[in-house]
Amino acid sequence: MDSIWSEHVQGVMTLYLSRKLRFDDHFFAQYDQIFRLDHNKELRILEIGCGPGALAESLHRWYPKARITAIDRDSNFIAFARNNIAGISFVEGDATHLPFENDFFDVTISNTVQEHVEPTAFWSEQRRVLKPEGVCLCLSARKGIQCTAPCLEITSEEKEFWDSIPQTEDELEKYGVCQYPMSEAELPASMEKHGFMSVTTGYAIIDLTPDATKYSNKVAEAMIEADRWSSLEAIKSAHSDHADKAIAAVNHKYDERLGLYRAGKKQWDTSVSITMVIRGIK
Ligand SMILES: C[S@@+](CC[C@H](N)C(=O)[O-])C[C@H]1O[C@@H](n2cnc3c(N)ncnc32)[C@H](O)[C@@H]1O
User: Fold this and answer.
1) Ramachandran angles phi, psi of 142, nearest 5°
2) Which of 11, 71, 251, 252 could form a disulfide bond with 91, CB atoms 3.0-4.6 angstroms apart?
3) Ligand 1 site: residues with CB under 6 angstroms?
């Protein structure tokens, strides 16, 4: 039983809602062009470090003939995924000791996991469970653009709250977060070094701008709510008894942002993320 990530690093809803947007159908054409997977084949797909399951859920929609298995070592994520997402086999387990036989999957895929797992184990375990000529897809978040609406700037209540929380410098290191970061050049080189062939790279641009008219009301409001959850779960993860004022301030400012959106008062706040995809063949 491991719940370090969901309790101390990123909460269930933070990951689920943000990834539901990142893997919304709106962006599928971009991923599809880079993934180059056969929609008509009954692919066996394994997602590594699936978190609460949003990417696996989208893969299930995008590749309806595929049989999808998804693994993560955090029990809260796996419990949430099992309770909320149908049609996928969610497994609690370790990416460095995959509980699957050799040459079993057609595709392995991961999103923002590589930087947290020791590289030789990360690549070689995927290579082991992939069939010959199987496809490994590694998705990695790159620096994007953030522009906040004035009403969403940090409030005095939040600032007071965060100032009251003792920050130890090695907080994330303690939880094994981002121990193996790689640049855009190092990532494909690392994949090649670990035996993958025909390595290619591509980039998907995920533009989350609630006021852009290309998005439905539902998607636009989901963008605002995903950010609300991220702020709320960050406060909760500090495990403080003095969080009430900060939580109320966060809810108030996101209610205001929703009100402005519904009233058609455009703020043009935006979050543009860039997902690098490295693709290699066993
Ligand atoms: C940044 S989160 C990304 C989660 C998910 N891929 C997503 O995009 O929502 C990193 C995930 O990797 C998982 N993880 C880290 N090391 C792992 C390991 N050795 N085995 C399995 N999962 C691991 C964490 O539990 C966490 O869910």
Assistant:
1) -115, 170
2) 71
3) 5, 15, 19, 49-51, 54-55, 72-74, 77, 94-96, 111-113, 116-117
pLDDT in the model for residue 48: 98
State residue 171's pLDDT score. Answer: 66
Name the amino acid, one letter, at 99.
P
Query: Looking at residue 40, which CATH number applies to its domain?
Result: 3.40.50.150
| Atom 27 of ligand 1, residue of closest alpha carbon | 51
Give whole-number Cα distances, 169 to 100, 116, 173, 217, in Å: 37, 18, 8, 40
d(CA 193, CA 213): 44
Alpha helices by DSSP H, the chain: 4, 12-22, 28-35, 54-62, 75-84, 119-129, 156-164, 171-174, 186-193, 217-236, 244-262
Q: Whose CA is nearest to atom 13 of ligand 1?
A: 49
Distance 113 CA to ligand 1 centre (A): 5
Measured in Å, residue 94 CA sits from the centre of ligand 1 at 9
The packing angle between helices 12-22 and 217-236, to 10°, is 150
Model-level pTM greater than 0.90?
yes
Q: Whose CA is nearest to atom 11 of ligand 1?
A: 49
- Domain extent for 221: 4-281
